[in-house]
């Protein structure tokens, strides 16, 4: 697999927007089904924040212990959910597997969902990314990243180990 | 003939529910004990005395004033209670109350209220014991469905969000949740754990919530389907606009 976001061919992006906010079990099933679809380049999970501590009011600092903050397993990767999953954006290598993705969602989600094609995750570096990662060298002004697929997947200030996971890296070799 | 207030126009179920809320002609759905409610509110320890902010009015010796003679103080004011608040957030997915109707219910049926009405939440400040009486009334009746509403002093996020898979409105601080078919709460309204699990009863089914709601929705009862309400709203709008142009009229 090419390690740039804009792979050769015409990648498409799909936003899956379920009618309800997903419980961790449903989110895990959905993400695994999507992972089995051919040609998935990257996925972005969005939803409602689950804080570890109360951040305002008289109870500031109290532990929340939200039961939906679970560790889920997707492919060979385990990570803790920091959000109640409300949407998943998927980038596919081309249009050919779009229906396969739709079927995966229909199999997993017990309620209706929106399935929109559009441009949701950026594909090339912007000024903020250059500010964070810099140039490769004085002579090479491309962005100093080994794998450009992480562009647009996380906040520039976030730490990759907390918000990013690479599924099945062995298969790519 | 005795005067009968005409609270709200319209013939749809939403208009009827709005009239019910305003007139306090609401059905009691559940029992919440005083101690449980005090714990949920989180202003004082259950069973403790009401802290006061001034001596009882009877001891102060009020000045001669015709208004004070006419207006009887509420129990909380008479005892010198502190001002305390309760805040509710209601889901726009057919939550029984919408913020304005909580405020109308408070302002019409209770005294000494200071309701603050926002888009997705409603806060009400009153003397502590008066506030508890008001909060109990709203918590125990059809005004509140604990699956589609929450008592939230802070972090009120939830009103306009999609519901969770189990049909409950999202709560970032997990103050209440669905357990065994009933809503239970083990935190007070600001997210601090309390020493008990308060049973808030069964949440309403989708059909029941749609029947009892006071929110107009295109997928339930559309605002435009109630001609009398439209007429009323347009008349109020027209008079307000005209008044704005002719302030002395």
UniProtKB/TrEMBL annotation, chain A:
The keyword Protein biosynthesis does not apply. Its EC number is 2.8.4.1. Keywords: Methanogenesis, Transferase. InterPro entries: Me_CoM_Rdtase_D. One of its GO terms (biological process) is methanogenesis. The keyword DNA damage does not apply. It comes from the Archaea. One of its GO terms (molecular function) is coenzyme-B sulfoethylthiotransferase activity. It is an enzyme of class 2 (transferase). This is Methyl coenzyme M reductase subunit mcrC.
Automatic annotation (TrEMBL), chain B:
One of its GO terms (molecular function) is coenzyme-B sulfoethylthiotransferase activity. It is an enzyme of class 2 (transferase). Keywords: Methanogenesis, Transferase. Its EC number is 2.8.4.1. Pathway: One-carbon metabolism; methyl-coenzyme M reduction; methane from methyl-coenzyme M: step 1/1. It holds the Pfam family MCR_gamma. InterPro entries: Me_CoM_Rdtase_Fd-like_fold, Me_CoM_Rdtase_gsu, Me_CoM_Rdtase_gsu_sf. GO terms for biological process: methanogenesis. It catalyses: coenzyme B + methyl-coenzyme M = methane + coenzyme M-coenzyme B heterodisulfide. Gene3D superfamilies: Methyl-coenzyme M reductase, gamma subunit. The keyword Repeat does not apply. Its cofactor is coenzyme F430. Belongs to the methyl-coenzyme M reductase gamma subunit family. Hexamer of two alpha, two beta, and two gamma chains. This is Methyl-coenzyme M reductase subunit gamma. It comes from Candidatus Methanoperedens nitratireducens. The gene is mcrG.
């Amino acid at each position: 697999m090419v390690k740039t976001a804009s792979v050769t061919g015409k990648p498409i992006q799909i936003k899956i927007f379920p009618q309800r906010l997903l419980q961790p079990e449903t989110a895990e099933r959905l993400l695994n089904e999507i992972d089995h679809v051919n040609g998935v380049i990257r996925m972005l999970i969005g939803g409602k924040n689950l804080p570890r501590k109360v951040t305002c009011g008289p109870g500031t600092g109290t532990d929340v212990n939200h039961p939906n903050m679970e560790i889920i397993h997707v492919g060979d990767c385990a990570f803790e959910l920091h959000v109640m999953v409300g949407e998943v954006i998927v980038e596919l290598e081309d249009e050919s597997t779009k229906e396969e993705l739709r079927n995966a969602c229909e199999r997993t989600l017990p309620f209706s969902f929106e399935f929109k094609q559009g441009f949701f995750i950026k594909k090339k570096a912007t000024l903020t990314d250059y500010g964070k990662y810099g140039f490769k060298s004085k002579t090479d002004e491309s962005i100093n990243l080994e794998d450009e697929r992480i562009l647009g997947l996380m906040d520039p200030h976030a730490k990759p180990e907390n918000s990013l996971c690479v599924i099945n890296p062995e298969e790519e070799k | 003939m005795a005067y009968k207030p005409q609270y709200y126009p319209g013939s749809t179920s939403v208009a009827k529910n709005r009239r019910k809320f305003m007139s306090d002609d609401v059905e009691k759905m559940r029992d919440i004990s005083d101690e449980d409610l005090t714990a949920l509110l989180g202003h004082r320890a259950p069973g403790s005395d009401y802290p006061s902010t001034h001596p009882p009015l009877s001891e102060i010796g009020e000045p001669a004033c015709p208004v004070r003679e006419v207006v009887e103080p509420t129990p909380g004011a008479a005892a010198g209670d502190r001002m305390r608040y309760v805040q509710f957030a209601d889901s726009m997915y057919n939550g029984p109350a919408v913020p304005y109707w909580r405020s109308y219910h408070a302002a019409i049926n209770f005294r000494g209220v200071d309701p603050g009405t926002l888009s997705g939440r409603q806060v009400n400040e009153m003397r502590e014991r008066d506030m508890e009486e008001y909060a109990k009334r709203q918590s125990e009746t059809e005004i509140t469905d604990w699956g589609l509403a929450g008592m939230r002093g802070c972090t009120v996020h939830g009103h306009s969000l999609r519901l969770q898979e189990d049909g409950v409105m999202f709560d970032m601080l997990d103050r209440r949740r669905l357990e065994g078919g009933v809503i239970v709460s083990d935190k007070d309204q600001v997210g601090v754990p309390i020493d008990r699990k308060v049973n808030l009863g069964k949440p309403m089914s989708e059909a029941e919530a749609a029947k009892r709601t006071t929110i107009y929705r295109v997928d339930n009862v559309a605002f435009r389907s109630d001609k009398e309400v439209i007429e009323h709203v347009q008349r109020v709008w027209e008079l307000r606009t005209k008044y704005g142009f002719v302030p002395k009229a």
